[in-house]
Input
Amino acid sequence: MSDMRRREFIALVGAAAVAWPLAARAQQPGKIVSIGILAIEDFPPIDTFRQTLNDLGYVEGKNVRFEHRYAKGRNERFPELASDLISLKVDVILTWGTEAALAAKQATTTIPIVMGAVGDPVGSGIVTNLARPAGNVTGFSSLAAELEAKRLELLKEAVPGLSRVAILFNPPTAT
Output
């Protein structure tokens, strides 16, 4: 799957996950649904997510409002930014990344949280179970450890003389 198709798929899944809890709130005439976005920065999939919601009938300024809070490379800001979104009484919080999801989860147990691009939501304590996350958190994970062997196999096919592979990751964030 190409990066663009993957982003479109993620945005569609994220939009559907956010749109579902908003459906009841949006039934009220004149109600503007407020979506808090909590991330390290404004990633392209977030723009695709906003566009997908627009395609589903959620038009910014008409029936939806976005409140963006970006940590700008400073993860320690997430708890403050999550609290800010809660004080604005957003209807749902979309998080991007493990640290953002953890901060949102620690800040509220009542506002629905849709996590995106979380490496290991069970291992990091965001949810107790992937099949039934429970609480106010749902979404999707980028964890695909079971696919790593296949990825290595495909890489070896693409580069037949390959003899060494290095993998870089950020263990403190589990993403």
Q: What stands out?
A: Helices lie at 3-26, 44-55, 78-87, 98-107, 148-158. The longest strand covers residues 33-39.
